[in-house]
Amino acid sequence: QVQLVESGGGLVQPGGSLRLSCAASGFTLDYYAIGWFRQAPGKEREGVSCISRNDGSTYYADSVKGRFTISRDNAKNTMYLEMNSLKPEDTAVYYCKAAWGKAEHWGQGTQVFVSS
Q: What is the pLDDT of residue 86?
């Protein structure tokens, strides 16, 4: 079964850290461009970070640049989003995505809540 399964979300205080994981099954993540998106209540889903399939270059939204780090472990068929210095405005449901040509897979989402 082709799927992406996320984990690692939760409640954290401002300034804290979380690491989100997204494990792929049924396909080889190495062949895909990968990315993380988030959707806050009442807002549209937005791109947070991604890694190009072609050259491995990374992209970060301005709002997370310098605080978040995207990575992948091909041996584990898993992608990660390391989030540091979290802010209340980072509160959202975070989704992972893998794309290759017309093939596109999304995770089910994991909730991140930043609050004191």
A: 98
